[in-house]
Amino acid sequence: MERIYIKDLNKYFNKEVEIKGFIDNIRDLQYVQFVIIRDITGKVQVTIEKDEQNKKLNEVISNTTLESTVKVNGKLLESPKVKLNGMEIIPSSIEITSISNQELPINIKDKNSAEIDTRLDNRYLDLRNEYNLNIFKIQSKMVETMRKFLYDLGFIEIHTPKLIGTASESGSEVFEVKYFDRKAYLAQSPQFYKQMAMASGMDKIFEVGPVFRAENSNTNRHTTEFTGFDLEFSYIDSYEDVMELEEKLLTTMLKEIKELYGDLIKEMYGREVMVPTTQFPRIKLKDLYQVLEQKYNYKVDEEAKVDLTTEAEKLAYKYAMETYNSEFIFVTDFPKDKRAFYHMRKNGVLQGYDLIWRGVEITTGAQREHRYEILKNQAEEKGLKEDVSFYLDFFKYGCPPHGGFGLGVDRLTMLLLDIPSLKEAMFLFRGPNRLNP
To answer: 180: how many CB neighbours lie within 10 A of its CB?
Structure first.
């Protein structure tokens, strides 16, 4: 018999069914046993009368434990008196497929009963909690929707190497590894290879893959390895084209998530999914600091105004909500010293942006410099000429104007669900002090 998921059981009343899952709860009463079975889609009650006919089934349940896995065959009945979905299975056979033979080290039904590090030590159990499990259902749909959006626009999905021969981008914050008889590095981003694809004539590409940052940072939004959603596309006229594409991508994703999971997110995570209905507001970095000082009396030294501070990001969100009713705001016109050498410049101003969502920066996007001589000079300014010589070769034989951006899937998840830390928004967290499990 083909396995049926619990969410689909209401199609099979008065029929024989087979379900598989974990034993979530057992109530062993004088005359009856109630067993709650849980799979990835939901829970259902199995009811076993205590009588001679069910003696073997009763013994199976009496000798098993919570969180063991089981296969149940039986008849599905519609039972309004059963509080759990108004149905129950009357079993004809029960097979214990694995035994949970020790007391669980954490309470999986109450994620707040243990400290986060204890939970991460036992992540394989922690993820059985419904709150945690739903995070990754929602995250999966989020990535699927963004992928589909780009596929529909003719983008090609590529997979770039994560072991590279030179330190990428800035030359800092990279992990060095031994590679046979020489050094290699874990890729800080797929940026160079995205641009190689543009020089190759691939026109529009994206990648979903691991990104490594050797940041010895212990904040709630930093990690040493995360999943990046990166894209690049050619024949743009300005970085405004990049901003417009990202705006459409995120709006499409949020619309889909709200339709499928909006009620669940509001009930379980206490957050409303807001789908943008107007263009994201834009503001220059210099103007933003002026606004924040005028409206919120937020003052920083001039040296700090060359980039966004953490507090400025939070206040930019507040300003965007109060002024535009927007959770998003683009910040533009950063000075050249605060961005990578491959960003295009005009009159010393970078042709790029940061995107703030719910008070946190989620993207640095830009039009790239595609002209060989200018790009080479900008690399030399940063002292990177030799380190990026292989990259500069991409531009010697013609390369179309292009731009792109990257998103952190885990950070997006954290913000979407209002989860307090990246540690909970990732399947397995990696940080300066965590390499296991």
So the answer is: 6
Q: How far apart are CA 384 and CA 387, in angstroms?
A: 5
Which sequence spans correspond to the domains of the chain?
6-98, 126-425
- What residues form DSSP beta bridges with 360? 357
Q: Is 228 helix (H, G, I), strand (E, B) or coil?
A: strand
pTM of structure:
0.94
Which residue is it, tokens 């009396």?
297
Q: Which CATH number fits domain 6-98: 2.40.50.140, 1.10.10.10, 3.30.450.20, 2.40.50.180?
A: 2.40.50.140
Domain 126-425 carries which CATH code? 3.30.930.10
Distance from CA of residue 210 to its chain's centroid? 11
Question: Which stretch of 55-59, 221-225, 355-359, 371-375 has the lowest confidence by average pLDDT?
Answer: 221-225
Beta bridge partners of 254: none
Distances (CA, A) of 289 to 2, 91, 306, 385: 62, 67, 10, 34
Give the pLDDT score at 153: 98
Say if residues 15 and 76 touch (Cβ distance below 8 Å): yes
